[in-house]
Write a structure and sequence with these properties.
2 domains, six-stranded mixed beta sheet, Four Helix Bundle (Hemerythrin (Met), subunit A), Alpha-Beta Plaits, 12 helices, about 55% helix, alpha/beta
């Protein structure tokens, strides 16, 4: 469906919003590393142009509310990260904590990336969001993950993939449509609560979900699965089958992709691991993709 004049006008208004935030980003970085160069507080305040734009565009039909809310959350987290840096600038030879600096840069990159995604999704008929769950679709997952792999290779930014699958999904799929759809929505809400504002989650067929946990290594990926487990304990939805009430459970596996990995192969290996361990309670699998050289060395060691 082509953009309306109002939609097109508001999307075009995002360019000056990004320009203003780029200038603000530079001022924050300058203040952190050169605090002796005094800067007015209003110059360090986050621009209000995005929130003003969001308030206007939220009233326009055709703009995805879920996508807009996501950018708002990232914007708020970016503001908080900036405040943490501004309140503790570098002095003399000291530097701000690397974690605080990386957090701010990560949120800024994700803010820009999500603005571009909002523009792209509004311009095409497929918004990239699953209409039932409001998670992202398999159709856009490949492009999103390809971008994360490029970041991994170019900037050394790690990320993890988590695969979650609803146990006994065939049983749930056989329920009345409205019961099935409600279960998918409830599980998707738990997935959404598991991830952070800049992470992504995708709904796949057959009761599967992929979570892209950004800017984190394997330990962070395992922590994400622990959040998922706790949320399931607190609010897992139930359904009736043959007069018996059952609670929905998930099996999950986490992997940390490495440069050169193939995402499709990695996901298939994760599926294979989960299938091998299906039925074993309290099992959390961590899958590390290995290079061909590592595989050769391990294989040779086993042969000897």
């Amino acid at each position: 469906m082509p953009l309306t004049y109002e939609q097109d006008s508001q999307l075009n208004a995002l360019s000056p919003v990004l320009d203003e935030h780029a200038e603000w980003f530079s001022r924050v970085i300058r203040h952190v590393f050169y605090p002796e160069k005094k800067m007015e507080n209003d110059l360090l305040a986050i621009p209000d142009s995005f929130e003003n734009w969001a308030n206007v565009v939220s009233q326009i039909e055709g703009i995805q509310k879920e996508s807009l809310d996501r950018v708002r959350r990232v914007h708020a987290d970016m503001h908080e990260a900036a405040q943490n840096l501004i309140e503790n600038p570098a002095h003399d030879a000291e530097k701000p904590a690397v974690k605080k600096f990386d957090t701010f840069v990560t949120f800024y990159d994700e803010f820009v990336s999500n603005i571009r995604r909002l523009e792209r999704d509004a311009a095409v008929s497929d918004s990239g969001l699953d209409p039932l769950t409001a998670l992202r679709t398999r159709h856009v997952m490949a492009k999103d993950l390809e971008r994360e792999m490029e970041r991994r290779a170019r900037r050394g930014r790690p990320f993890c993939l988590a695969l979650a699958k609803i146990d006994h999904y065939d049983e749930i799929r056989g329920l009345p449509q409205e019961v099935h759809d409600k279960a998918m929505q409830d599980v998707s809400e738990i997935i959404r609560l598991t991830i952070r504002s800049f992470d992504d989650a995708y709904r796949l067929p057959d009761g599967e979900f992929i979570m892209c946990l950004k800017q984190t290594e394997m330990s962070g990926g395992a922590a994400g699965l622990n959040r998922l487990r706790k949320l399931l304990e607190e609010r897992a939805p139930s359904y009736m089958i043959n007069g018996e009430e059952k609670r929905i459970s998930l099996s999950a596996c986490v992997a940390e992709p490495q440069p050169g990995d193939t995402i499709d192969v990695l996901i298939e290996n994760m599926r294979g691991d989960m299938n091998r361990y299906s039925g074993e309670e309290e099992t959390v699998l961590e899958y590390f993709e290995q290079s061909p050289l590592q595989r050769f060395v391990i294989d040779q060691g086993q042969k000897n």
